[in-house]
Specification:
This protein is mostly helical. Helices cover 33% and strands 0% of the residues.
Length: 84
């Protein structure tokens, strides 16, 4: 992953999860708590960051016309035999 984004799997996230066992941290929460600077210029380094998947999820939801990320039917992207 060469986007220059940091990951959310850090001590702060671990502490929040332990302190809030009955709550979910939404994709919007992940994006809003990202550091407001790149780890490096995009394309110049490699570092794992799953935040790119949150951003991709918002792009897909918008592309398929979902009113918001929570109303997007993620399963529609998979073949019928893989849907549960």
């Amino acid at each position: 992953m060469q986007a220059g984004l940091s990951d959310y799997d850090d001590g702060a996230m671990r502490s929040w999860t332990l302190a809030n066992p009955n709550k979910d941290f939404s994709p919007l929460d992940y994006i809003s708590t990202l550091p407001k600077k790149f780890l490096c210029a995009p394309g110049t380094c490699e570092d794992y960051s799953s935040n790119g998947y949150e951003i991709l999820g918002f792009v897909l939801a918008s592309h398929y016309g979902a009113e918001d990320w929570s109303s997007f039917d993620w399963w529609m992207m998979f073949p019928d035999n893989l849907r549960s």
